[in-house]
Amino acid sequence: MATSSLALHNVSCFSAEHVNAGTPRIQSSRAAGVFLSVKSSQSVPLNSFCGLKSVGACTSTNLHLEGDSLALLRSPPGGVRDLERMFTPGQARAAAYKVAVLGAAGGIGQPLSLLIKMSPLVSDLHLYDIANVKGVVADLSHCNTPAKVAAFTGAGELAAALKDVDVVVIPAGVPRKPGMTRDDLFNINAGIVRTLIEAVADNCPNAMINIISNPVNSTVPIAAEVLKAKGVYDPSKLFGVTTLDVVRANTFVAEKKNLRLIDVDVPVIGGHAGITILPLLSKTRPTVDFTPEEIEELTVRIQNAGTEVVEAKAGAGSATLSMAYAAARFAESCMRALDGDPDVYECAYVQSEVTELPFFATRVKLGKKGLEAIVSGDLTGLTDYEQNALEALKSELKGSIEKGVSFASNGATVAV
């Protein structure tokens, strides 16, 4: 029976050269497919893909269906232990992880919550916002996927929303409007993130934290400082979600070069705003030749893609749908890593030593304990264009990081 699942996506294939001290850094990894659970203890390897994928060619039964497959999950022979043995690491098991989305009633939060609800790895989906979240939950609860959805409204219910969750995704904050830069959002969103991270520290300090709220270049350092002050900071659990930059880079390159999107993988490093976004087109897989004009055109478009959407929506919103898609992909990668998949790679903005900056976006390997390794090799063998762009972005990224750290030390907490 042919089915579709939005829980399936790629791991990147790449090469690098040096392993350094501190956070492990990877040289290479084989590309690997994701496995889809079927009626028996067998697994079906799927081709790797850069992003969430609707799989129409798969002839197995996935975990979203009613009938035999769910009956198997509800009544496994020999009980839960036998069920666990049926699913090998790297295979999508029955709903196992609790996810909280903070800011779930917003333009990003609603489609993001829908996509996460579709994952067979999610057992409980906690949706939090300051208002209007009960309607979102009522709507999502009608979707016949395994995750149980619950609504939490206002500061008084924030602790309950976060209690013992495995992955926290934070899209909370105000969206960009025409003429606004990400730094224009800072004063409002920085306070929101600070307050939410304080609650994360108190209620689920071991969760993998996915920060979407812009400006990510500053909000991730804010989160780090708050977690440090609470005595629970683990740099392997804190991620700025830059996946949208990768998604855009892959899409734009595939369109420009008439390639199958399923084959394209472009690493994006630096940060998540303007010139700090640096697509490494020379590292594109498959190998592609670009003219200098194409490199400039693609780089600028990828850097300004958010503005492209804001202007196209003419004041009616920002890049909510594509951001939700990218965030769902990263959240799914976190759950796959927690579930034991040995080949989970994404680009993310993390505490890093690959440059002199304390935070930097590169490819990372995710594992059961969060960030397992940073891929340093993408920064070797850069073209002159990329090397110059890398040097140019550092001062702006440094300023954004320092701004976040300063706010965390002095900024006021806001109601969320």
Task: Sum this structure up briefly.
Its EC number is 1.1.1.37. This protein has 416 residues and is of the alpha/beta class.
Task: Characterize the structure shown.
- With 416 residues, the protein is α/β, with parallel strands linked by helices.
- The protein has a domain at 244-400: Alpha-Beta Complex (L-2-Hydroxyisocaproate Dehydrogenase, Chain A, domain 2), CATH 3.90.110.
- The protein is 36% helix and 17% strand.
- A hairpin with a 6-residue loop joins strand 11 (268-270) and strand 12.
- Helix 3 (109-117) packs parallel to helix 11 and helix 8 (243-257) packs antiparallel against helix 9 (292-303).
- The radius of gyration is 20 Å and the shape is globular.
- It starts with 13 loop residues before the first strand and ends in a 6-residue tail after the last helix.
Topology:
Elements: E1 14-15, E2 28-29, E3 35-37, E4 43-45, H1 68-74, H2 80-86, E5 97-102, H3 109-117, E6 122-129, H4 133-140, E7 148-153, H5 158-162, E8 167-170, H6 186-203, E9 208-211, H7 216-229, E10 238-240, H8 243-257, E11 268-270, E12 277-279, H9 292-303, H10 305-313, H11 320-338, E13 344-351, E14 359-367, E15 370-374, H12 384-410
Parallel strand pairs: 5-6, 5-8, 6-7, 8-9, 9-10
Antiparallel strand pairs: 1-2, 3-4, 11-12, 13-14, 14-15
Helix pairs in contact: 3-11, 6-7, 7-12, 8-9
Number of helices: 12
The quaternary structure here is: single chain
| CATH third-tier fold name of the domain at 244-400 | L-2-Hydroxyisocaproate Dehydrogenase, Chain A, domain 2
Gross morphology is globular
Low-confidence spans: pLDDT under 50, at least 5 residues? 1-22, 27-90
CATH superfamily of the domain at 244-400: Lactate dehydrogenase/glycoside hydrolase, family 4, C-terminal
Rg of Cα set: 20 Å
Q: Name the CATH architecture of the domain at 244-400.
A: Alpha-Beta Complex
**Helix amount, in percent?**
25-40%
**Mean pLDDT over the full residue set:** 81
What is the N-to-C order of secondary-structure elements (H for helix, E for strand)? EEEEHHEHEHEHEHEHEHEEHHHEEEH
| Beta-strand segment tally | 15
Biggest sheet details: 6 strands, parallel
* Residue share in β-strands: 15-25%
CATH class of the domain at 244-400: Alpha Beta
Record the strand order, biggest sheet: 7-6-5-8-9-10
Secondary structure category? alpha/beta
Cα(first) to Cα(last) distance is 45 Å
